[in-house]
Amino acid sequence: MDARPAAADRRAPMIAGEPKPIENVGTFWRVAAQVSTIGIFLLLFGVMLDLARAVLLPIVSAFVIGTMLGPVSTRAERHGVPPWLSATVLIMVILGAFNAVIILLSAPIVEWAGRLPELSASIKAKLHVFDRPWDAFQDLRRAVLPAGGTEPLKVDVIGFVQPVLGTLTPAIGQLLIFFGTLFFFLYGRARIRRVLVVFFDDREARLRTIRILNDTENNLTRYLGTVTLINIGLAIVCTIAYWAVGMPNAIALGVLAGVLNFIPYIGPLMMEVILFAVGLVTFPTLTYALVAPAVHFGLTTFEGHFITPGVIGRSLTLNPLTVFLTLVFWTWLWGPVGAFLSVPLLIVGKVAMAHLFPKEEATTLPG
Questions:
Q1: Pairwise CA distance, residues 269 & 248, whole Å
Q2: pLDDT tens, position by position, 301-347
Q3: Is the dihedral of CA 227, 229, 234, 239 positive or negative?
Q4: Number of independent structural domains in the chain
Q5: Residue 334 is assigned to a structural domain of this protein
């Protein structure tokens, strides 16, 4: 006799937890169709963002920076300064800041680029402590995949630096689009706001649009302005700390630490890698090379957990998971500039959602 059917019959039934049938099947399929339509729209919208990256990236960047500088332009206009003059001065200030950062970083980059062969040999000599783990890993790989060939551990500094510089270096056309859009946005900012408001016929919709524009501008200005001041202070403190531990080009490394700190998570991690690489070719031992990354980790941890939340306040505190997923998405889509824009775009979306879909009273869920 076959006992398998009897054993199958004795299996415990699956627990469903008080199942209830759908009252209206037509409503279910109607909602499913709406969700499918929204999903298709989001997919096509993502494809459009990717295909139009060369144009949308500088335009969106200009809108974000222009929104942050909006209150400055408004105050200048109240004091009788023409909009074209205030827009020109603000763009000149931004160009001056970019130029100062490039000057501070260009000289060390050129110096280190000329020493790449020497630096590559020094890094390989310092990393000899990892030869035994690497050999063990190669033995394991040969045991699992006997047909695979063996390759020695290589440190291709040139192959790593060139793609990074190619990614970070913007095209001339995108810079022209960015500054042109920023100038005309600041120049016609008041007119753009009026057009957006009068686009709606309903009085409540117009008031909601005004509130969304005002809150978006205030939150972006507060966030980016505060973060800029904090990162300037971090750059100064990091410069002093790098000089104290004996790092070369302490000023350039401090400025780079402040710039990269605008990018959550990824920026400080990139700075850790850069400090470790510089320490490898500067100091005689691997342990000493870890001092500067450890100091930077302590400073950024203190800044991220105490200073920034305490200065910005709870009103602009964002969910860490949401920030991380937004950062991953925009970095994947638009690269380093997308990483910088990820948090401002999240703030814009959060403000719009708060006005369009205000929180209702919490309801008790079954559980």
A1: 20
A2: 888 777 777 666 555 667 778 888 888 898 888 888 888 888 888 88
A3: positive
A4: 1
A5: yes
Residue 40: pLDDT band with limits 50, 70, 90: very high
- What are the tokens at 352? 């719009």
Which tens digit of pLDDT belongs to each residue from 85-123? 888 998 998 888 888 888 877 777 776 666 666 666 666
Average pLDDT taken over every residue of the chain:
78
Is residue 286 classed as helix, strand or coil in its secondary structure?
Answer: helix
228 assigned to some structural domain: yes
User: What pLDDT is recorded for position 145?
Assistant: 59
Q: Which two tokens stand for residue 300?
A: 């950024």
pTM of the model: 0.71
Measured distance CA(154)–CA(83) in Å, rounded: 56
Q: Which long-range contacts (CB under 8 A, 24 or more apart) does 121-125 make?
A: 122/280, 122/281, 123/155, 123/157, 123/277, 123/280, 123/281, 124/153, 124/154, 124/155
Q: Do 225 and 319 touch, CB atoms closer than 8 A?
A: no
C-alpha span between 98 and 172 (Å, rounded): 14
Q: Are 291 and 279 in contact (CB under 8 A)?
A: yes
> By the 8 A CB rule, do 123 and 157 touch?
yes
- Give the domain range for residue 314: 52-130+172-356
- In a domain, residue 215? The reply is yes
101 lies in a domain?
yes
